[in-house]
Design brief:
Largest sheet: none
Radius of gyration: 17 Å
Helix content: 55-70%
Distance between the termini: 14 Å
Strand content: under 5%
Shape: globular
Structural class: mainly alpha
Mean pLDDT: 91
Number of strands: 0
Length: 190
Amino acid sequence: MRLPVINPDDMTPRQREVAERIAGRRGAVRGPFRVWLNSPELCDRVESLGAFLRFESSLPLRLRELSLLIAARHFDAQYSWNAHWEKAVAEGIPAEAVRAIAEKREPAFAYAEDQVFYRFCTELLEDHFVSAETFAEAKEHFGAQGLVDAVGSLGNFSMLAMCLNAFEVDLQADREPPFPDIRGYARAAG
């Protein structure tokens, strides 16, 4: 990691407060939160947003995990990918679809709504816009709230990926990515 991990004894009272809340909710302060604690107000707000999007969003859990994988792969964020690909499969995203995303191929999903969700997310990330056809189809499946939550998820998980990459958080040199070509950190660290 490019920034030193803040020793709990050296934390300001605000950093300690935020760190204790994160550890209580997530089990420990790890990954990007070790970076964000350098700005405790940002860390507090990012953690709250992330908790909402991961645990309370209107989207089904499998799509929340899928949005994280889509953003992680888009930004080659190995830490996020390694932390979530198995969760996505456990929630019902087909392993072959996860492999296709890892290999930057078009995935096939078991549910039509998952295919629409994937298309909506990838158009937004790659083209910076969503086609009228994709938008209409996605709105039919997810409604206005679901689309807003989808964009919020992509934005949050993209910010997460950028943090992980910029600060080289947990490069995981000892952990082989489960699928080929998920080596963003190997490129950055190499």
